[in-house]
Amino acid sequence: MLCIYWQNQKKYQRKWQLLLISLKHARLSATPEKIARRNAARITDTGCYRDLDKQIRDPKTLNEIVFPETFEETKTMIEIADFIARCKAIDIQVTMLPPVFYTRNMTTTWTEKLYDYFQETVAPELFRLTESEVYDSVYHANHEGQKRVTNQLIQQLLEREELVE
Predict the structure, then answer these.
(1) Superkingdom of this entry's organism (predicted)?
(2) What tens-digit pLDDT sequence spans the chain (165 residues)?
(3) Rounded distance, CA 148 to CA 96, Å?
(4) Structure pTM?
(5) Do residues 103 and 65 lie in contact, with contact meaning Cβ atoms separated by under 8 Å?
């Protein structure tokens, strides 16, 4: 067992670094204000926050999500594509859903190529929040954003050919 550790020491060191970074982020982001807001929000059975009916931070002050300029296949993408292929082989339909996000300037070329790679038909623009839908970060939607994304996603899934009998 110890021999395996030393053979993979760099991998384990990187995992520890990532754990420490995530713990530091959790500690720094857990301000009394954030904790009070989250305690006041209603949480669903799935763990989602509900009734976030206002905007806590001005979207103009948030750091933007940077999308790559060129599309390149990664090891993770290959693994996901392999998983999707295995599911399709046993008649399981897979739908990839990214998190909601906010960005002011975004070229759709990269996301379109990503969705083409996975042969995904749900429009990536569906998950892009408008300025008025941002709650407190580029990944958190307020009630208005949650409602729009959910309703449009349901509508798109209902209209998919492979799901219509």
Answers:
(1) Bacteria
(2) 555 655 666 666 777 777 777 666 666 666 676 667 667 677 777 666 666 666 666 767 777 777 788 888 999 999 999 999 999 999 998 888 877 877 777 667 888 888 889 888 777 778 888 888 887 777 788 888 888 888 988 888 888 766 555
(3) 18
(4) 0.60
(5) yes
Instruction: Provide the 3-class DSSP secondary structure of residue 49.
Output: strand
Q: Could you tell me which residues are beta bridge partners of residue 107?
A: none
Closest among 94, 70, 91 to 81, alpha carbons compared: 94
CA distance 14 to 51: 38
- Segments in the chain forming alpha helices (H): 2-7, 9-29, 32-40, 75-89, 109-117, 143-159
Residue listed under structure tokens 């219509």: 164
